[in-house]
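quick one, 121 residues, struct below
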Amino acid sequence: QVQLVESGGGLVQAGGSLRLSCAASGRAFSAYTMGWFRQAPGKEREFVAGITPSAGTFYAGSVKGRFTISRDNAKNTVYLQMNSLKPEDTSDYYCAAGPAIGVRPDTYNYWGQGTQVTVSS
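---
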C-alpha cells in the first residue's frame, strides 16, 4: 500500500513556474513507476509525465521541454517542475504510483488527492 500527498499547486501568471511535490509513504517507493496526470473540469484525466524506478523519464507532447519530472528515493518524493506555464495548463494535478511504464490512468494503482494549478493570462 502506498499513500501519496501532493503539494505545491497555486495561482501563477502565464510564463511563470511552479514545482509540485508528491510525498509517498508506505512500502517500496523506489520500485514504483511514478506519474503525474492532470484533469480539468469536464475533461478526461490525461498523462503529463512519468519516471521509472531507474529514473527514465517520459512526457506528454504538450509539456515536453517545459516540464521536468524527477524523484528523490531517499525522501520518497517525486517532483514536477513546471516552467513557461500556459493558461491551458490550468488543471488539477495528480500523482500516481504503479508497477510499470504507462500513459493510461489504469496503469497506476495508487493516487493522491490532487493539487490545483491555475495559470492566469
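Residues 49 and 59 are 4 Å apart (CA to CA).
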